[in-house]
From TrEMBL:
InterPro entries listed in its UniProt record: RelE/ParE_toxin (IPR007712), RelE/ParE_toxin_dom_sf (IPR035093), TA_system_RelE-like_toxin (IPR051803)
Pfam families noted in UniProt: ParE_toxin
Name of the protein: Plasmid stabilization system
Keywords: Toxin-antitoxin system
Gene3D superfamilies from the UniProt entry: RelE-like
Origin organism lineage: Bacteria, Bacillati, Cyanobacteriota, Cyanophyceae, Nostocales
Family under the similarity heading: Belongs to the RelE toxin family.
Amino acid sequence: MTKRIVITPKASLDIDGYFAYIAQENRDTALLFFDSVRKTFAQLARMSGMGSRYPVDNPRLQGLRKWAVKGFKRYLIFYFERDESIEIVRLLYAGQDIENILEQE
């Protein structure tokens, strides 16, 4: 069963920000990034539960999972698997202080 994808406002801003950053150097790569994000979301919708649980202390984020964007492995999708949907919480670059960013959610 394909689940519905729900993208939080912060995750949407993340995607837009990375697109703009990549586009400064190479617009074609930025378009490829955006397409890869979309395809990876569709893959998660079809095969929920992919990736691994991401350990966090924040009780609001218990059960959070992570999965890399296809072709852009340093960009990580953080999401919740719900009964009928996949909730995309954030999309973060692996070089960032992910633990600190997620603790503020």
